[in-house]
Write a structure and sequence with these properties.
The complex is a heterodimer of chains A (249) and B (218).
Chain A: H1 2-9, H2 14-46, H3 60-87, H4 90-122, H5 130-151, H6 155-187, H7 202-234, H8 239-246
Chain B: H1 2-14, H2 16-37, H3 41-64, H4 66-73, H5 76-82, H6 87-116, H7 121-148, H8 155-182, H9 188-216
Helix pairs in contact in B: 1-6, 2-3, 2-6, 3-6, 3-7, 3-8, 6-7, 6-9, 7-8, 7-9, 8-9
Classes of the chains: A mainly alpha (249), B mainly alpha (218).
């Protein structure tokens, strides 16, 4: 038992995690491609045309997974940041930093595809709906995290400051969500209802789940690649990092 | 803690311009909206709570950076860190002083500006009460951002990027209280939520600020 723990904690060191991440990347890439192909196949050829929305609804297969991932990545990022702050481990903070751009990308993708979906369905690019607004705020929180880390030169201080910001953000996300929700119900009536008919076809759900898995694996790959770059950058003074840097990747 | 409050207030009185600039900014921003939108009383009454609250948010932002910057520059902050009094308590004192200097004048001035927007007496009361509950929250949350960006390149702009998204709930409930009152729903619910935000931030924010300050001074 104790041996197992020691074995795993070994990878908390950037030097030993770097090659492990390198070995994991191809596997997760393969999974991402696999889920992606399956998900796209289901979403384009298997899932039936929606009765009310026609073919246009198929953007859901990108939109919903991107929204899920944007929220999930923020949680994961804050968890890593919290671990980094509590245990003072360097790698955790690097993981948090590596996840932020992917999370921001997902939030942006979710907003963008949402606009593309909203235009034909509701006749408008944007409504001040609770979910849209809180997704926008989440996007701002990601940008704030990235900007704060980029502005601080000392990487250790950047890690810790970012961690505090991420944790404050995590506490605030539910508050923001509910406040926006109540604000929304006060302001506008049910002119636009996001809740679709409950009878979603089984295959649509499968398409969405497969695409979500694909996005998940993609996020893992991107985070690992980015964390490898961050490790090399920060450990550039060490001998092992210089050895790795010479080998073309 | 009271010594910190007393000292910060004294400093603020000695340097009046900084306080007055924020206040003047609040007045000017609020006065620009009718000029930009048009003088119809019905429309102004509708946008008044939002405009006044957004102006209050921005005016509070102006003073935030100064909360720790001067003390950081002359080493006072390090002395506070070393003092036997818990840092969180001193931070709370600084927050209180910031609110007394930057928040309270806004609260007192808001009814006057509300008159310009043709709000009736009861709506003015609700607006003032909301600001009274809400502006301390702005100071408290803002101090986390101020501590995080202490001594950072481009701290001012960064500070607004970090803090403004976190201000959204306060803005919504504060402006919502007046709107709910105008719609005849009663402002009680919104004001209670503002109170809840205040209690939460009084309790948690000094600790987050303290942690951020310790990192900044490492």
């Amino acid at each position: 038992m104790s041996n197992g723990i020691v074995h795993w904690l070994k990878f908390a060191s950037p030097a030993s995690f770097y090659p492990l991440a390198g070995r994991m990347i191809p596997w997760f890439t393969a999974l991402a491609v696999l889920f992606g192909v399956a998900g796209l196949w289901v979403s384009f050829f298997v899932a039936p045309t929606d009765a009310t929305q026609g073919e246009g609804y198929r953007i859901i297969f990108v939109h919903v997974p991107a929204s899920w991932m944007s929220m999930f990545i923020y949680l994961v990022m804050a968890t890593w940041a919290g671990i980094g702050l509590a245990l003072n481990t360097r790698l955790s903070a690097m993981m948090a930093q590596a996840l932020a751009p992917t999370g921001a990308l997902m939030a942006f993708l979710s907003l963008w595809t949402g606009a593309f979906w909203g235009k034909p369905m509701w006749g408008t690019w944007w409504v001040w709906d609770a979910r849209l607004t809180s997704e926008l705020v989440l996007f701002f929180l990601y940008l704030g995290f990235i900007a704060l880390q980029a502005a601080i030169d000392d990487p250790r201080r950047a890690d810790k400051a970012g961690a505090i910001l991420a944790l404050v953000g995590v506490v605030n996300v539910p508050i923001i969500y509910f406040s926006v929700k109540w604000w929304n119900t006060l302001h506008q009536g049910a002119s636009v209802s996001l809740t679709r008919a409950p009878s979603m076809a089984q295959t649509m759900l499968w398409g969405m789940l497969l695409m979500a898995l694909c996005f998940w694996m993609y996020a893992v790959v991107m985070a690992l690649k980015r964390v490898r770059a961050i490790i090399l950058e920060r450990e550039a003074h060490t001998e092992w990092a210089q050895q790795f840097a010479q080998v073309p990747a | 803690m009271l010594a910190v409050v007393h000292r910060d207030l004294l400093l603020a009185i000695r340097r009046k311009t900084e306080v007055l600039t924020a206040l003047l900014f609040f007045i000017i921003v609020a006065s620009l909206f009718p000029l930009g939108i048009g003088p119809e009383p019905a429309l102004l009454r509708k946008i008044a709570p939002g405009v006044l609250w957004v102006a209050a948010l921005l005016a509070t932002m102006l003073g935030l950076q100064r909360m720790f910057a001067a003390d950081h520059a002359d080493g006072t902050l390090e002395q506070m860190l070393l003092s036997p009094t818990p840092l969180a308590l001193l931070v709370a004192g600084k927050n209180l002083a910031h609110w007394l200097v930057c928040g309270l004048p806004l609260v007192l001035l808001a009814p006057l500006l509300g008159l310009q927007f043709d709000l009736d007496a009861q709506a003015l009361g609700v607006l003032t009460l909301g600001l009274l509950l809400g502006t301390p929250v702005l100071s408290l949350i803002g101090s986390i951002g101020a501590a995080l960006t202490l001594g950072v390149r481009g701290g001012g702009v960064l500070l607004s990027l970090l803090v403004l998204p976190l201000y959204i709930p306060t803005l919504i409930f504060g402006a919502g209280a007046v709107q709910a009152h105008a719609a005849g729903q009663g402002a009680g619910g919104h004001l209670s939520l503002l109170g809840a935000l205040l209690v939460l931030s009084v309790f948690f924010s000094p600790f987050a600020t303290t942690a951020a300050l310790r990192i900044a001074l490492e």
